Amino acid sequence: MKELVIVSGKGGTGKTSISAALAFLAPQKVLADCDVDAANFHLISSAVIREIHPFTAGFEPHVDAQNCTHCGKCTGLCRFGAITAGIITTPLHCEGCGVCAFNCPEHAIAMHDKKAGQWFVSDTRLGRLIHAEPGMSVENSGKLVSKVRQEAKKIAIAHHLPLIITDGPPGIGCPAIAALSGASLVLAVVEPTLASMHDLQRLWELIRHFQLPMAVCINKSTLNSLNTHTLIAWCSKKKVPVVGNIPYSDVFNTALQAEKTVMDTNNSEVQEKILELWYNLSKLLDINPIDSIISRIFRKINSFGIKKGSEENTL
């Protein structure tokens, strides 16, 4: 079983649109939306939620009012000012450290699991999708990412599916680290801007630290040809294959507004480039890219007089 994790150094590069297009092409797979702080894969894929599960992370105090004498010892010990004489006055300040429960002379405070969000199993027109949403003011998105990946792997194993496509979070923080660890291949989606180029450098350093294979897809490549050539040169220097070079097109926004992927549209130029990207990724993942869906797409694209995708690993 292989896992393709799609990430970006910054938001807005088209990472989710690329992920959805690849999910459209991949024959047998499970989908995981690990961008849990801004999950929107379900909007593109016409998701129907089949299962809802609570997610717990950390602890929170619960006070037994019958045993509490309101002695105030917990107030003096709580450095966060979350509890006053046995009453949780500001729960958002509580860090779940448990010092109040440990030192309560009446044993009136107990630490319980804290609900930190929920995760879902959904059926979509692109395949089975695992996604999630964190709780309000809860800082455990890294753990929630790990839970989404864990459940996606369970489904892949149970149904003998060879591929997991993971739409990862942007950046290099805890959620991104949780999404990257143990990936078969990391695809970084970048755009030819100075900010994206800078963030790609940081992302490459993180991926190299974990010794993971990495490839790059340049999205909106025609916006700035000079920066695109600079990106290709940088990737060549770092020995990172550029497996996709997708021109800027309004079709991405049009498809997103219609809750579709770009492969559902009639833009043959973009579709050809996405097909090239899928073929190049398939080679790196050592999986077979051909199935009946792709054959139908090729027939559709060939009706516009366009040839099959390139066989090159780098563009």
TrEMBL record:
Question: Its domain of life?
Answer: Bacteria
Q: What Pfam families does the entry give?
A: CbiA
Q: Where is the 4Fe-4S ferredoxin-type domain?
A: 59-88, 94-114
Q: Which residues form the signal peptide?
A: none
InterPro entries in alphabetical order:
4Fe4S_Fe-S-bd, 4Fe4S_Fe_S_CS, CobQ/CobB/MinD/ParA_Nub-bd_dom, P-loop_NTPase
* Gene Ontology MF annotations: iron-sulfur cluster binding; metal ion binding
- Xref: SUPFAM superfamilies: 4Fe-4S ferredoxins, P-loop containing nucleoside triphosphate hydrolases
Which keywords annotate this record? Iron, Iron-sulfur, Metal-binding
Q: Which Gene3D superfamilies match?
A: 3.30.70.20, P-loop containing nucleotide triphosphate hydrolases
Q: What protein name does the entry list? A: CobQ/CobB/MinD/ParA nucleotide binding domain protein
Tell me which species this is from. Methylomusa anaerophila
Q: List the taxonomic lineage.
A: Bacteria, Bacillati, Bacillota, Negativicutes, Selenomonadales
